[in-house]
Design goal:
By secondary structure, the chain is α+β, with helices and mostly antiparallel strands. About 50% of the residues lie in helices and about 15% in strands. It is built from five helices and five strands; from the N terminus they run ααβαββαββα. The strands form two sheets. The chain has a three-stranded mixed sheet with strand order 2-4-5, with helices on one face. Strands 1-3 form a two-stranded antiparallel ribbon. Strand 4 and strand 5 form a beta hairpin. Helix 1 packs antiparallel against helix 2, helix 2 packs parallel to helix 5 and helix 4 crosses helix 5. The two termini are about 35 Å apart.
Amino acid sequence: MNAIIGFSQLLEFDPALSDEQREYVGLIRQGGEHLLELINDVLDLSKIEAGHIEMALENLSMASVLGQCLDLAKPIAANYGVTLHFPEGDAAGQTVRADRMRLKQCLLNLVSNAIKYNRRGGEVRVECRDLDGQTVRVSVADSGLGIPQERLAEIFEPFNRLRTQSDNVEGTGIGLTITKRLSSP
């Protein structure tokens, strides 16, 4: 997959390509990146279920980690016409002990779902609160249609996207499954 993506990136800069050919190469690259993301998600879920996920725990600044995640989510939000709100003061001075990569993965899953399943012109709010000096709660809320109460448990089922395939929302339906399993004690 990396070879396909790499060669397509090289081809995109070939001045001999017509605009139409460059567009096709861009589609190949995007398709390769999407497939690589799907493969990595399935591999992550397999590792988690087998109990072979490795964690490198360290003390992390929540303001820094959330800021990085939201910077990564801004282009997605712009593409979907969604506004991100994050009062940075909420996370100021808050530190957690976590695996940086896995924490970012969980936060990005939550924020990107809030963006992708929102409505054009919608909003996503991310809040970070210290509950008791030892527990930090991160909340992600959006202005989308919501999920009926009776279907809430389904969002954590692998490959269940709750909606039809015609929704034009990319993804495998395992991001929230991974997030729940990584964040469960």
